[in-house]
Amino acid sequence: MSQDNVSNSAPINTHDGKQKCLEVVQLIIDGEACEKDLAYFKNNIECCSKSMEQYNLHKELKECLKRVSEVCPPDNLADCIKKDLNL
Length: 87
What we know:
The chain has helices spanning 15-30, 35-44, 49-67, 77-84. It is an all-alpha fold.
């Protein structure tokens, strides 16, 4: 990943700044953040509680999904749904 994910960062107290913070949170969650992104996050996270909330929710969800085992639906699921819907 490029070292320039965050460029010309807007002040965090603006709409653009908050949007950038959310984008950086997503990069971090996806494991695609560069050092500049991580520094931006660390410098601004206390100023943007929504980003911190989003970060914690996504992080928790990602951890939960790791613990879920894969379940295959029955072969006739589509037919059963169509029957229930009278299709």
